[in-house]
Amino acid sequence: MRQKIIGFALSAMFLALCLPAEAQQPKVYRVGVLLPGEAWYEIIDGLRVGLRQLGLEEGKQIVLDIRDTKADLKAAEEAARNLEQEKVNLIFTTRTSVTRAARRATADIPIVFSAGSDPVVLGLVESFAKPGGRLTGVYEPGTDLTAKRLEILKEIVPKLRRIVAFYDPRNPVASESARLAREEVARLRGVELVERHFASVEELQAGIRAVRAGEVDAVFQLSDSMVNNQAQLIIDTAMVKRLPTMFLDQSAVIKGGLASYSVSHHEVGRLSAKYVQRILTGVKPQDLPVEGVDKIALIINLKTAKQIGLTVPPNVLVRADRVIR
């Protein structure tokens, strides 16, 4: 009898110890992540860092369900719809076009975005201070820097006359970027923007390979996710044909592009983490003002300049935030 009593007592003690432990198990949040290709994984790396800084470690307190849609907007809509049906806690989007697709495809789920175009102009939020709906996030100047990138490219290549730019005219963000480029080209005078349209990855790749050094003086990247995904092909083709390149993303310059003027994608992801964390803990998107990233960096790859036989003017080089030698 004594042994039974001791056994019951030990069992009770074990249960008493286990129940609080189970009750204290941290909740695991699930976040759906939509990105249009390889170029945006740097944002996800920054997001992971930011989440860890806020006490949310991937695999423990939070799970990131990443869906790479390869710049296919229909695939982005389908992925967003599926994520909402699977009842993830929120969706994080990494491009304006993807954000628009996610909003179209969903009804109730909160969306945290990193937008490269003005989210108010595009109707994603009512205002920066009061988003007003179920979307909020970080604004990174991307499309809005189109004119400035052209201006810098003209300074890097003073004899610039013809610039080729690829984009899908069905993409409203890309079309807006092209419009801004046309306006800047008109201001620069003597410079022509050669616009090359495409409707598929295959058409884009064929168009990039068909560029001839004699017909253009440089390759300029507009805000088009599909073009971003072909950055390495652009870099390799431009290198062979000795053409200067101006990119949106810093990572492209590290890979061999000539120059970029943009924000750090890693920092965009890190800043986005606080929106994810606050919404997961109960704050409504409409109560979180949109934050802008104002640290814009000019990066120049001098190794690439040397390989294509270009001398970067000293007055431009001295203004660069980073020079790859």
Task: Summarize this entry quickly.
The chain is α/β, with parallel strands linked by helices and 325 residues long. It has 13 helices and 13 strands. It has helices at residues 2-23, 41-53, 73-85, 96-105, 146-156, 172-188, 201-209, 225-228, 231-240, 250-254, 265-280, 302-307, 314-317; strands spanning 29-35, 62-68, 90-93, 111-115, 135-139, 162-167, 192-197, 218-220, 245-247, 259-262, 291-292, 297-301, 322-324.
Give the count of helical stretches.
Answer: 13
Structural class: alpha/beta
Global morphology = elongated
User: Can you give the helix content as a percent range?
Assistant: 40-55%
**How many distinct beta strands?**
13
Q: What's the arrangement of strands in the largest beta sheet?
A: 7-6-8-9-10-12-13
In the predicted model, the low-confidence regions spanning at least 5 consecutive residues are: none
Rg measurement, Å: 24 Å
Let me know the largest β-sheet. 7 strands, mixed
SSE arrangement, N to C: HEHEHEHEEHEHEHEHHEHEHEEHHE
Mean pLDDT: 91
The separation of the N and C termini measures 83 Å
Strand percentage? 15-25%
Label this structure with key terms.
325 residues, alpha/beta, 7-stranded mixed beta sheet, 6-stranded parallel beta sheet, 13 helices, 43% helix
